[in-house]
Design goal:
The chain has about 200 residues and is α+β, with helices and mostly antiparallel strands. It has 3 helices and 6 strands. Strand 4 and strand 5 form a beta hairpin. It is globular, with a radius of gyration of 21 Å.
């Protein structure tokens, strides 16, 4: 079933004008959509650049020379600078948002964080999340808690990071998503059904 506010002629060719329609994009998962044991491979890898690492170390005032001093890092067991681990965490969590927490009302915790292998400039990171547990809340009927394990890998398939993440996720019945007002859009902004 398509979530559209208008229909269009499916027999039209590329040269013929068609009716415009407002079609829903991805609204993210709601509490009801999560099933224990599901694994979501998050779309798109992201190559880590030297700029990412320099900015992160400067912004967070991380003074470990492993991240910004090439001469120092060259003398270590790694032979080059390492990417700041907090950047790797932020990147992997960010990659998971599209599948896990677009509709989160709060992140309750990040637990059991482990850096399994170093990340270097030029590495491409990929992430996936597994649903470990979910539960209803007696105190809040509009959300539920979803516990996930987030895993990040480099382009060689090496596990570089794992952590448990626990968002409180909105229930679909309280979200009322639509093509005209997807998550994060204020009412009345952009194309509306009456514009078509």
């Amino acid at each position: 079933m398509s979530d559209t506010d208008e229909t269009t002629d499916t027999d039209a060719t590329d040269d013929e004008p068609t009716e415009k329609r407002l079609v829903s994009g991805w609204h993210g998962r709601y509490y009801e959509d999560f099933e224990v044991g599901d694994i979501y491979k998050h779309p798109f890898g992201r190559t880590v650049t030297e700029t990412d690492n320099v900015w992160m170390t400067n912004v967070t005032m991380n003074l470990n020379p492993m991240h910004f001093n090439e001469a120092y890092a060259a003398e270590t067991e790694f032979g080059e600078r390492l990417v700041d681990g907090t950047f790797v965490i932020a990147l992997a969590v960010g990659m998971s948002v599209i599948d896990i927490s677009v509709n989160a009302t709060a992140n309750l915790g990040y637990d059991d964080i482990r850096h399994h292998n170093p990340v270097f400039h030029g590495d491409t990171i990929f992430a996936e999340s597994e649903v470990l547990h979910k539960r209803e809340l007696e105190s809040r009927d509009h959300v539920g808690i979803v516990e996930t394990e987030l895993r990040a890998y480099n382009q060689h398939g090496d596990l570089v990071l794992s952590l448990e993440r626990t968002p409180m996720v909105l229930k679909r019945s309280h979200a009322d998503p639509s093509a005209a007002e997807p998550p994060g859009w204020p009412e009345g902004i952009g194309t509306q059904p009456e514009d078509l």
